Amino acid sequence: MPIQTTSVGNVEQLRVTDKELMLLYEIGLNVIPTATDFVDHVSSKYQVSQSGVWYTLKKLKKEHMVDFTEKGEGPKPLGLTEFGMKVIRSRVTDVNDRQYHYVTMEIKV
After folding, report:
1. What confidence category does residue 96 fall into, taking pLDDT thresholds of 50, 70 and 90?
2. Counting CB atoms within 10 angstroms of each CB, which of 2, 28, 64, 85 has the fewest?
3. Which residues 6+ apart lie within 8 Å of 92 measured at CB?
4. pTM
């Protein structure tokens, strides 16, 4: 599923779930170098399932917000992409929806 956006004037708003945003923040801390260790850490810290963390992490990779090594790929550390850093740095506004945040930013394809 592609990234969901809405337009407000000439600015796009990217819809990011609370879980996705939390993972982006945790990855941005650059404390855990590998995806496997990161999943173990987040799973125990937030008492969530490892499969749920993997699912969200892979979704963020597919949406080009994070990068990490998967089977068959060359080694690379877990980290935010340039786009992921823009999402983190963007202003997050509350839209009276507990499940989603809208990150206001200009999105170029």
Report:
1. very low
2. 2
3. 16, 21, 101, 102, 103
4. 0.75
